[in-house]
Design goal:
This protein is mainly beta. It has 2 helices and 37 strands.
Amino acid sequence: MNRPTTLALAALLALVAGLAAPGTAQTVHRVGPGALPQIHAAIAIAGPGDVIEVQSGNYEPFTLSIPLTIRAAPGATVTVLPQLSTPVTLATPPGTVATLRGIRVLNPWRYPSCHVEVLGGTVFLEDCAFESSQSYRRAALEVTDAHVILNRCALAGYGAARALVGAQNHGLHATRSTIQATDCSFFGSYTTWDSYGLGGTGLTATTSDVHLVRCDLVGGGKLLAFANAGGAGIDTSSSRVWLADCNIVGGSTPGNGGHEVGIRNSGPAIQWTRSTIQGGRDQNGNRRPAFQGPQQQRSDLLGLAAAAPPIVRGSPFQLDFETAPGWPVWLFVHDELQANLRPEIEQPLAALPGTAALIGVLLADATGRATYRTTLPNLPIGLSARLHVTAVSGTTLPLQTMPPLGGVVR
């Protein structure tokens, strides 16, 4: 059912126009051939709300402490490579948002090394790829006391994409944080007999809220039969976790032991629906259990049946939601991304009610599917602004929501 198309277009037009109103104009700083040589040079002269557009090339790590957008230029491949073991650090003031789109942080060598750390504020990551350093228990993305939203990102422990040995390197490690991800992949590093510790996990969370939709999480396996044990797909403690339409698998082994469970949990029961969760496999095809720790399978968590597209002006935009049959799905559009908890909604939200506009109400069919379709206006205003859609579903309290969709307007 798709009733709200006209209303949706009116709301989108109004919001995009508002984002480009006087007082919110963006200055674009360009990095690459014929422009500023490094991303950190552009940050040094930029102000809040500005845009840094980066051409194809290899760049040095940077620290971002002001709310702005760093984006790859159209068609560009932007790679941050290690230098003197300096991390990429993102830490904006509370109540502000930093945005990265199309940025890769890779570690092709053991030394020097680089990883990405978020140490405060809210960070939105879209179409990014991060690889951890080889350092012991280092994650590709380390999040502490912060809020991170990810769309279409890949996070991998050291060497996971190349079957190289890491040192218990995780895809993502969150501490006292809120993580919301859609259409993302998380991989742990491999282990051998002489590597430090176990295989890395896809995602590790401590005292955090984690909400994942359409994500793949794979624990690092063993490269040798007599190596240390592999890693879990997800490892959590004292955290709340919701999973919808995800695939999770523990690390596997070429031997008879050391394969790992899909999810290891020592906190509240993990809530999940429409997901494939498996332990790792040994050489004989035997699998470890899917879970170690409390879990609850649900039928009412809100998710997606297909990948959510980016926001492209003048292009069709379709979202295929999955929920309980016959349930309403309310759609809100917003440009804010502040994490907050409300008693009416089970999961953390990413937009305050006062900043969001209702663009329509869908009704799920007998299979639980609800589809939203529209065509975005092809306007020059609003380019590089953030435009997000949040869905809320349910018939009784608490209602269900999912991580915000959309992203940087293209």
